[in-house]
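= Tokenised fold =
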Amino acid sequence: MNLRELEYLAAIDEFKHFRKAAEKCFVSQPTLSGQLKKLESEIGVQLVERTTRHVFLTPIGQEIVKKARTILADVASIEELVKTYADPMSGTVNIGLIPTIAPYLLPLIVQPINKTYPQLEIILHEVQTEVMLKKLSEGTLDAGILAVPLEIRGLEQIILYTEPFYVAVNKKHHFAKKSKIKKDELRGETLLLLGEGHCLRGQVLDVCSYAMTKERKDFQGTSLETIRHMVSTGIGITLIPQTAIVFKNLNHIAPIKYIPFSKPAPARSVGLLFRKSSNRKTCFKNMARLIQKIIQKEFSIKESMEIIPVK
């Protein structure tokens, strides 16, 4: 048994497809398949079940791949430790961002980070919260930027910023004349939401459940931008975090008005998560300070806020 064979097994578990797994491992499909058969022969158990249509791991294969991922993450950690011993702000880091943060935060932070830390190579991944947490625990992601707080064993978090939610309505909506809005005024409104799997969906439902707002069941957005365009048609309202308003050119969606909540405004906190065992803590703390500085420069929030929990 060697590390390469464990990489092949992990790739099969990820893609459930020999060709895609082979492409990730930069080998031919026959090579990957042959090495896995060799591994099965060596340890005396079947790891991969092959049919004409599907490929998946056997129960013992699933147990072994969990340990294989831990081993591979430890090896990568050793390699990265050697690279970063002299300079913690060098080398490659894989960072995940959730879809309701990535399009609005990345244009602000990527260039400053590259300029400040030119020896640091950042690989960005846009994933939903559940997938991100899994990849963080497996070691395939080094850090993640997402809505917090999240009490996850083995993970450390740094709060980057806290932002209030705004009510987004068509300018012909009866709310459009308001300068502030109370949560109970949302009663009876039709709410447009992201699909299942987006943590922002749960946070918005928490805000609006008090007012018994009704969700439009025949529509679930795949992104905030899709929902924003639907709001512009007047079929419903939604809640938008401040970064998605301030850091986006909205001239092309003129029919929308964004109304702040009365105090305390419902809000979400955004944080940087990484493993407590990571050898890149210095790197992540430096990155967090830089991001905090950028956000504070772009906008300041003075009103009192009520942090909506992440579920």
Q: What stands out?
A: The domain at 89-311 is CATH 3.40.190.290 (D-Maltodextrin-Binding Protein; domain 2).
